Amino acid sequence: FFLSFFLSFPFVQVMKVILKCCDVSNEARPKGVSRRWAECLTQEFYEEGDKRRERGFDLPLMNDRTKADMPKLQVGFLDKFLLPMVTKLADVVPEVDTLLVVKLRKSLEGWQAECDEAEKK
Fold first, then answer.
1. pTM assigned to the model
2. Under a CB-based contact definition with an 8 Å cutoff, are residues 71 and 115 in contact?
3. 44 Cβ partners below 8 Å, 6+ apart?
4. How far apart are CA 30 and CA 121, in angstroms?
5. Per-residue DSSP letters for 10-77?
6. Is the backbone of residue 56 left (phi > 0), alpha (psi -120 to 50) or beta?
7. CB–CB of 66/74 below 8 Å?
8. Of 28, 62, 78, 80, which is least surrounded by CB within 10 A?
9. What is the 8-class DSSP label of residue 97?
10. Residues 6 or more apart whose Cβ sits within 8 Å of residue 47
């Protein structure tokens, strides 16, 4: 019984989502830490784009250093991927709301403010 419970479909799916959230939840860390992670990841995306460009491949926007910028990339990542996933997880594990969702919404607000400020210039 014990093993069958832990291998049941819903439990395994929830655990997969929890692991994915752990993997990509740097935006829930303090601003200085999350910003540094975003800088490193953005640089990695750009370097991958540079290699793709050298080989003549098309570039996704997030890999094109001439078109993408970090605040917009972070807004898209938070708004379209991370927050929806973490919000669904909070439906199953309510503690996730205070542990992640609230922090991620604040992070999204900060990145959006940077985007808005850049557009004013």
1. 0.83
2. yes
3. none
4. 27
5. HHHHHHHHHHHHHHHGGGGS-HHHHHHHHHHHHHHHHHHHHHHHHTT----GGG-TTT--HHHHHHHH
6. left
7. no
8. 80
9. I
10. none
Instruction: Please give the angle made by the CA atoms of 92, 104 and 115, to the nearest 5 degrees.
Output: 145
Which pLDDT does position 10 carry in this prediction? Answer: 76
Query: What tokens appear for 109 in the block?
Result: 């607000």
Contacts of 94 (CB under 8 A, 6+ apart): none
DSSP state of 82: I
Q: What are phi and psi of 33, to 5 degrees?
A: -70, -50
Per-residue tokens: 69: 């910028």
- The tens digit of pLDDT for each residue in 73-109 reads 999 999 999 999 999 889 888 999 999 999 999 999 9
Structure tokens, 116? 């808005």
Hey, what amino acid is at 14?
V
